[in-house]
Amino acid sequence: MQTETFEVQREQEGERLDRYLSTVYPDFSRSFIQKLIKNQQVSVNDKCQKASYPIRENDLVSIIIPDAVETAILPEDLPLDILYEDEDVLIVNKPKGMVVHPSAGHSSGTLVNAVMYHCKDSLSGINGEIRPGIVHRIDMDTTGSLIVCKNDEAHLNIAEQIKNHTVNRIYEGIVYGNVKEEEGTVEGAIGRHPTDRKKMAINVKNGKPAITHYKVLKHFKDYTYMQFKLETGRTHQIRVHMASIGHPLLGDTLYAGNGKHSRFKNLQGQTLHAKTIGFIHPRTGQYMEFSAPLPDYFIRLLDLLKSN
């Protein structure tokens, strides 16, 4: 077991304790967090509280995280939106709300469970039993294209392309505010936030170089529809970089705060979609590129913004 403690920031004040912890630990399910609270493994200022407790600025929240229990990751017959498949790779369009690989609180319902069922025994094993086939990932609430490797040779090849920043990754998203420059680049090393465990931050000690190129697709009143091209692939890169220039992603409670979201109450996390992914096929040596269509919620949101 390990205990972690962190301080509530001003923008998080008033949020339910269980919802707050869901943003701190995005790989934990809400039910798992509520179970920890019920079992008195969560305290606020050294006192146990209910899941509905409204947190306050400067509250010290402590959580006892139980040791991971080795469990078999089982195949599950879950729907997969397959963009392409051959004997080496599988390209899927990941839906919003699906975690890529199992973790505490998410032992089932993940992309890994789904691809294990679909691919049977044809998945790379380099990342171990918990992450078979997974060579890269996107956040739970980010939708879009993702490469799954079906053998170790393909995995090593694609991993090298990712390491060398030669995989073409283009995202689309909606940000707050009116972005003045039609095109631009954000540079700044990204690493773990020095005081807020759940966040990444720009220009921090031991951060890794990160570069995001952006282009405006359409201006709306108070919002901008944008395209992002990753030159590097750091955790939360687009989310951190856009927040750093004053244009966080719509729906991103982690980097935009909770006060901005009253107009779009049904949003589930950041409005970000991994639109296009391109790479050299590990067997044929040919460049291949695939694009995942925008999800329905994103299209409806664009239509709503156009009408205002």
Task: Please explain how this structure is put together.
The chain is α+β, with helices and mostly antiparallel strands and 308 residues long. Helices cover 20% and strands 28% of the residues. It is built from seven helices and 15 strands. Strands 5, 6, 7, 8, 9, 12, 13, 14 and 15 form a nine-stranded mixed β-sheet that branches.
Strands, helices and their partners?
Blueprint: E1 2-7, H1 17-24, H2 30-38, E2 42-44, E3 47-48, E4 60-65, E5 82-85, E6 89-94, H3 111-119, E7 143-149, H4 152-163, E8 168-176, E9 183-187, E10 190-192, E11 200-202, E12 211-220, E13 223-230, H5 237-244, H6 253-256, E14 272-280, E15 287-291, H7 296-307
What is the number of helices? 7
Mean pLDDT across every amino acid position: 89
- Overall shape: it is globular
Distance between the termini: 51 Å
